[in-house]
Amino acid sequence: MLNINKSKNMKTNLIKKVTCALIIASAALTFSCSKKEKPQNKSEVQDLPNWVLDPNVADGVAGVGIAAPSKGGLKFQIPNAELNAKASIASIIQSEISRITKNSLKSANVNQEDDVEEFFAQATKEVVKNLPMSGAKRINIYIAKDGTLYVHMVLKNEDYTKFLKNSEKNLEARLKKSGLSRDNINKSEQASKALFDELDKERDSKAKKAESTEKEENKSKE
User: Fold this and answer.
1) Contact yes or no for 105/117 (Cβ under 8 A)
2) This prediction's pTM
3) Where are the beta strands (DSSP E) in the chain?
4) Above 90 in pLDDT, residue 143?
């Protein structure tokens, strides 16, 4: 009889422990979810300058960098935010180059040639790697109420265009020294020209679009 009661007590205690553990786990999960699902403060977003949400400008490739509040203040925040903004600009350019390269190779009928694709993959990596990000300039800065720093930077069109022209010359020189067949070199030269021409056109198109947006914003402010 004693053993039966002891067994019942053990089972009761086990059930209590399991129930308690489940309650704690459930509470923790609810707290975690409530933290993740916390709605964003609309007023905070509305208070941000337009360039934070739409960094595009008419005279270059622009990006926004963000730095969390720091005990070291702006001395530490600004370099971090600028580095972040430059990375954003490089990412935009890399995306453009990658997409247009694929289209150019397809148009030149060399997109199925493994050696050509490998050559352009390496060449475009070099192009992005050599981006003159030191030429990117800070044009706007904003400190939110919570101390978060936002920095707006731009790589001017003249610097970007000059860089593209130098990159095109370097790519042509690399093509001539490559081990590609004569036919593939000729097709690749066509693809290279199409690539840089299209990059120029796209940058010009985006510049006009950004300029139009700026004019509309200025009109709305009047």
Assistant:
1) yes
2) 0.66
3) 60-67, 137-143, 149-156
4) yes
